[in-house]
Design a protein that fits this description.
Pfam families: MarR. Keywords: DNA-binding, Transcription, Transcription regulation. InterPro entries: HTH-type_Bedaq_tolerance (IPR052526), HTH_MarR-typ (IPR000835), Tscrpt_reg_MarR-type_CS (IPR023187), WH-like_DNA-bd_sf (IPR036388), WH_DNA-bd_sf (IPR036390). This protein is mainly alpha-helical. The protein has a single domain, classed as Winged helix-like DNA-binding domain superfamily/Winged helix DNA-binding domain (Arc Repressor Mutant, subunit A), CATH 1.10.10. It contains six helices and two strands, in the order ααααββαα. The protein has a two-stranded antiparallel ribbon. A hairpin with a 7-residue loop joins strand 1 and strand 2. The longest helix is centred in the C-terminal third of the chain and has 25 residues. The chain is elongated.
Length: 147
C-alpha cells in the first residue's frame, strides 16, 4: 500500500475505532432483552449454535477460559434448559454439549433485539450517503478481521 500524507494517522484511527467498537458492543448487549444470560453464557450458546456440539474442554479453549470456569458456564446454561449434554458418538468417554430448541429460541430473540436496535438507529440517524459509507466501512472491517 502507498502512503498518503493527507491520510489520518493509522494509530489514531485504531485508538478511536477501539473506543467506538467498545461502545457499539456495549449498546448491542444492552439491547438484548435477555437478562437471564451473562455475556459469557451468551457467547458459549452462540458458539455452540454456529459451530455445533463441542466438549467442555473445546469450549474452554475456544473461549480462552479455564475448563473449571467453562464447566460452571455450561452448568448454568444446562440448568436453564438452553444446552444439553450427551455422550460423544465417536468417544463414549467424553460428553458433548449442544444447544436445545429453547436455547435456539433465546438466541434468536437476543439477535432480533440487537439487530432491531441497530437497524432502527441506522434508519433514524443516517442518510443514504452515510448508509453507503457505513456499508463500505463494514467491508473494510471484515477485511481487517480476516487478516
Amino acid at each position: 500500500m502507498t502512503t498518503d500524507s493527507s491520510a489520518p494517522d493509522a494509530g489514531q484511527v485504531a485508538a478511536e475505532l477501539t473506543v467506538v467498537l467498545g461502545r457499539v458492543a456495549r449498546r448491542l448487549r444492552s439491547a438484548s432483552p435477555d437478562n437471564l444470560l451473562t455475556p459469557s453464557q451468551r457467547s458459549v450458546l452462540s458458539r455452540l449454535d454456529r459451530g455445533g456440539p463441542a466438549t467442555t474442554a473445546e469450549l474452554a479453549r475456544l473461549e480462552l477460559v479455564r475448563p473449571q470456569s467453562m464447566r460452571l458456564t455450561v452448568g448454568a446454561l444446562e440448568e436453564h434448559g438452553l444446552v444439553e449434554r450427551t455422550p460423544d458418538p465417536s468417544d463414549g468417554r467424553q460428553v458433548v454439549v449442544s444447544v436445545t430448541g429453547q436455547g435456539r429460541r433465546v438466541l434468536a430473540d437476543v439477535r432480533a433485539e440487537k439487530q432491531g436496535w441497530l437497524t432502527g438507529a441506522i434508519q433514524e440517524e443516517l442518510d443514504a450517503g452515510e448508509l453507503r459509507t457505513l456499508s463500505e466501512a463494514v467491508e473494510l472491517l471484515e477485511r481487517l478481521v480476516q487478516r
